[in-house]
Write a structure and sequence with these properties.
This protein is mostly beta strands. It is built from three helices and 13 strands. Bound molecules: zinc ion.
Length: 190
């Protein structure tokens, strides 16, 4: 299982950036919602970043980045607490506390940065329309799923940012419409 540090997470965020897009808030966050079902060996630790156009999350357990256009998530709001920092409530599809809500605990300095970066998120700058291609990567499956899905899997990774773009099923590439990490449209390699 990969365990990341802040520098690795930040480098992963930076690789997803578009020209002129900058990171306005970045830091560690810990999901305090104990109701959300979690897999064995998953981690409540994340890094979050906000740019002019996107909210980006990097999971310590998954080692992957995912992002959303700022205006898209049903719930993406800060609950501020005096002295201790705050909570970022994030629920992209609005599924509620038992199915999709993350309660991301952040420290005071990240809370301040998020407060500024998330203001007026409905009016966020639109992303430029860009596309990307993918490559096939072999990943070793964690021991607890190896007996079901085999020792290794083939996944599709984005040639621009390294993010997850789909799976290989029965020898056939099944790309997603957009890269989950940078949201660029995924094209088939020539
Ligand atoms: Zn990408």
């Amino acid at each position: 299982m990969s365990r990341m540090d802040a520098a690795t997470a930040r480098a992963m965020v930076d690789r997803t950036l578009y020209q002129g897009e900058t990171v306005r808030a970045f830091g560690a966050a810990r999901d305090m919602n104990a109701l959300t079902p979690t897999l064995v060996d998953s981690s409540p630790n994340f890094w979050v970043a906000v740019t002019e156009s996107r909210f980006i999350q990097v999971g310590e357990a998954s080692g992957k980045a995912t992002s959303h256009r700022l205006a898209e998530p049903q719930v993406l709001e800060l609950r501020k607490k005096l002295f201790v920092g705050g909570w970022l409530r994030f629920d992209p599809a609005g599924l509620g506390p038992e199915l999709g809500l993350a309660l991301l605990k952040v420290d005071r300095s990240l809370m301040r940065a998020l407060d500024v970066a998330l203001a007026d998120r409905a009016q966020a700058k639109p992303l430029p329309k860009e596309s990307t291609t993918y490559s096939v990567e072999v990943v070793k499956n964690p021991a607890y799923v190896a007996s079901f899905v085999g020792e290794e899997s083939h996944v599709l990774v984005c040639d621009t940012c390294g993010g997850y773009c789909g799976e290989v099923v029965d020898g056939e590439a099944q790309p997603q419409p957009d890269c989950t990490a940078c949201l660029r449209q995924v094209m088939n390699p020539a």
